[in-house]
Amino acid sequence: MSxxxxxxAEGAAPEDVPGGEPSSGAADEPAPSxxxxxxxxxxxxxxxxxxxDAPATAPADDALxxxxxxxxxxxxxxxxxxxxxxxxxxxxxxxxxxxxxxxxNRLNRSAVAQGGGNAIYAEQLSIGxxxxxxVQALSVPSLLVAQQLDCHLDVDQQAQMAARLAAQHVLLLxxxxxxxxxxTALTLLAGCCPDDRIKILHSEAPGILQEISRRADELxxxxxxxxxxxxxxxxxSTLETLAHLARKxxxxxxVLGVLGRVDPDxxxxxxxxHRRPALGEVxxxxxxxxxxxxxxxxxxxxxxxxxxxxxxxxxxxxxxxxRTLDGAVSVRSVVEFAEVLAQSVHTEDTSLTEVIGQWxxxxxxxxxQLLRVPTETPQGSVLDPHRxxxxxxxxxxxGLPLADVFExxxxxxxxxxxxxxxxxxxxxxxxxxxxxxxxxxxxxLASADAASDGRADDNPRCARLVxxxxxxxxxxxxxxxxxxxxxxxxxxxxxxxxxxxxxxxxRAAQIAGILLSHDFDSVYRDLIRNWAGGKNTAYRQxxxxxxxxxxxxxxxxxxxxxxxxxxxxxxxxxFQDSAARxxxxxxxxxxxxxxxxxxxELGTRPELAFSSSVAFSMAWLYLSAAPGPASDxxxxxxxxxxxxxxxxxxxxxxxxSRYSAGPDRRDRPVLADTAxxxxxxxxxxxxxxxxxxxxxxSSTRAWDQLRRWLLAGDADKELAAFLxxxxxxxxxxxxxLRAGFYLGMWAGRHPDSRTVRQLRHxxxxxxxxTPSAS
Length: 774
Description:
Blueprint: H1 3-9, E1 48-49, E2 60-61, H2 74-77, H3 90-101, E3 136-139, H4 142-151, H5 158-168, E4 170-174, H6 181-190, E5 198-202, H7 208-214, H8 216-219, E6 224-228, H9 236-249, E7 252-257, E8 271-273, H10 279-291, H11 294-297, H12 305-317, H13 319-326, H14 331-342, H15 352-360, H16 362-371, H17 385-396, H18 402-416, H19 436-439, H20 469-481, H21 486-497, H22 502-518, H23 520-532, H24 537-550, H25 557-568, H26 573-582, H27 586-589, H28 592-603, H29 613-624, H30 627-638, H31 643-656, E9 660-662, E10 665-669, H32 670-675, H33 679-694, H34 699-713, H35 717-730, H36 736-749, H37 754-769
Parallel strand pairs: 4-7, 4-8, 5-6, 6-7
Antiparallel strand pairs: 1-2, 3-5, 9-10
């Protein structure tokens, strides 16, 4: 029996369901761009369990053991926070944006299976604001292009790809990361323009294709361009517009997409499915390139071209090498393998096993080397704990701004580690002694060729590892190879998720999810359970995201789902709230009917009446996985006899009303876009709006969101026509007089708004025609 199962079997103690009023921190008009206030409250550590009859592991909620008077747990050092929040949109928007920007799901890793990505399209509807997306244009060195051409292997349909790019100026390669898409893109572009005229267009924000189309005169020059969309969506109309602009500017554009999110069949004739070449051929061509000039530079008198040729043939025929290729995750990893073999050209074949083992374990050895404490320095024996702490932070926060790395490293070295160490003499600390180049060795950093991936000109500068997989290896080494580092690591993650920056909190939760894949029982018992049972929103949200991250390991999918169901059955509102938040992740998208049932069950409970977690998850489900079923569920909720369900439906409306239909329709609300082509959805939308506008706690926000919709209609004629028919239905009795008041006020604030003016005139005419409306 596992540790968590044994703890669950011990029985559940009675738990108090906290009362109290909702937090007053939710403003009537939450600003999506405002910084989220710090929530640094600690999880409640009551001595009780989720429920003894839970379907999966549900350990007792015992407090963490005390570690001595001088070692205070983070729960004791953090501030208390309000019980619950009812923010209808602001924190949801910031949380989803952070998840998109720093998603780890598309990174290959050994312990955690690669997932499909958890990024969803969630662009906020902002009227009259600056919607510009920052796009960086980075030149690819001609030497790098020449190297790619020298060792590139043609993929299926490459001749057709070249012809299509030459004719249409735009091509989309849809394939898995690591399939050699970038090499194919550079090769195709080199056939259309000079090697020194190829660039990469890069942006961390969504909507890069739409921004390039809007600024085509500025960004598209008679050059070749590579655009990597990661897992963002693309539409045929967008590609056709981009192709027209590229032909006009004389530019050639190759877009890289991900299979699953990008369907080549629906994007014809601009898209091709990119399949990786045979890995054996990749190894062969790179071995021959690396060993081509070796005899002339080798000091061994017996070295010759015949020797290197025979070595290459033996390696390609070796069963050990073939088994290694079968386990390779990407073309890039095969290239690295070729470099290791080339360095062993004079090694006996009997040592091949050792050479392959060194290649497989190269990142692990590097991780242990990075964390090793130096015994001697030029100044003698000096211990600087900050160096190891900063390296851990640099690895964990790969891809994030250096400011986040500095903050996290300082927290670990100055606040957490001193509680677990005995330091006789503090090391001298001078500001100018901790130079980044001294803290981070060059073998840990990405090379100068990082420009090839479009991220060399980071602003602000970000942490970039030599290999993305190194982050996961450092996590594994820290957890398994340093027994005294486990408790400081968990305490550090707890402190990080209590911080004010959303992206730091999301990354810390993702790290916890990766740790779950290494040791589910221990990490859940000592960390995730305390987060899920905490009285602070940030902890509960982090617990949900950690389980989502763990669910990318196929071995843990059922265990994660069972744990969430266990939270659902807990008598404590904190665990119920954590379950509601967990259903708003990829775990909930895997079984939409079960998720909708669970959210409805949670939504009926008075314990969650003041929480926005149910509404957040419904909004996420609508935006990312199942808009149809989610919309039907909301329609049932708004007409339910349960007042709590009605309030959750209204909250969901207020969240979704802030989001646009897509980057090519920024001014059209996503709810309106769906209802414009579906009368049933329009009827449901009318019912949602009427309840929201008449609600005692929601009317102020609802009227303001309706105003934003009307202003959006000024830039979208189809939306304006739809609102002309929809709004009078929404504002029918008993809302007629109140609607007339607001429309009159809006007409004064926005005198140029045609939609407001026309609806005000129409509503006045309808009210005059039906005097009983008053």
